[in-house]
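tl;dr need the bound structure. longer version: we got a ligand (zinc ion) that a collaborator sent over and nobodys looked at where it sits. i said id run it. heres the input, straight from their email, havent touched it
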Amino acid sequence: MRTAGWDRPVADELLSSYLVRVAIAQGTSAHRLCARYAPGISVWTRDIDRCAPERLIRVVADQAQVSVDRIEGMCLSGWRELAPRTHPMAAITPWISAVGTYHRLRRRYGLHYCPACLEQDGAFLRGWRLSFVTACPMHELQLRDRCGSCGEPVAPHRQGVMTRCWHCQGDLCAGSRPLEKVGLGQRWLSSCLSQQLSSRSAPSEIWLGLKQLLEAFAGRPSRRFADAGPRIRIELGDVQTQRADMRLLDGLIAQWPRNLWRAADRQGLNQLAFSSPLPPWLDAAVRKLPAGHPRGKRATPSARLKAVRRAEATLSPGWRTERAEFLLDQVPQRHGH
Ligand SMILES: [Zn+2]
Ligand SMILES: [Zn+2]
């Protein structure tokens, strides 16, 4: 028989959210609940949604009277298969936002939420930990990542009410709700998740390729906007930064691959900006960009001149940059007097 308070999890609920709801139903804190049912397991000083101890999963499955698979499915670990080269204990998993665990505090804004969904279900969902999910597909609202009153990151395990800020008790669902349509990047990456679950085909090629594409552009300050500093990895950003990165990605993948070539040309990006190996669909587009010259491995001037002329004649992507770089290199270097 199921123990009182251990009701069924909400669809797509995070394991951490479920434990907090059980604690609230039993009139206790998340900390005391876990000390009682899972003694000796540190639960709230780690990111259990990313990496839950097996013993904890078994305890929860037992109490809730559901299968171990169902509880495992409430964590993000299944999605890690989309990034097979990532070590299970790596600090950052591609596309999964970091919450910045520091003891029982959360220092980063890696848990987003839709105010309408949270108000309706009183639960935090798995999709809200994904760095590319910035809009709620159901309500077409902008996701939030903090308390609107005090600005603290949401930390359900410290909350006594699912919709109230742990720090100032402010209503997390209050305030205006700006609309946001689901962008192209969010759609592509979300479909990778559903494909992975249904067919086990190779959605990881899109999953990792879009990450490499974003990093090539977002990882460097724009030449056009001289004051823009280098950006941090999307998984470490807050929802506003992630939204900006996703709009950048949306722009690159629309009218593929022409927009990529245009943007690379504008920013002076060549093949060296991309980490390798690239999946075939991305590699085919990137190969059309200028090769770039690793330090000390430049071609001879006459070979470069021929290549520049060829690029100019065929108007291949990046020909302007290639020509400008070649011309600049011909200017004699002045060494300090
Ligand atoms: Zn919603
Ligand atoms: Zn607050």
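gonna send this back to them w/ a short note. The beta strands are 101-102, 105-106.
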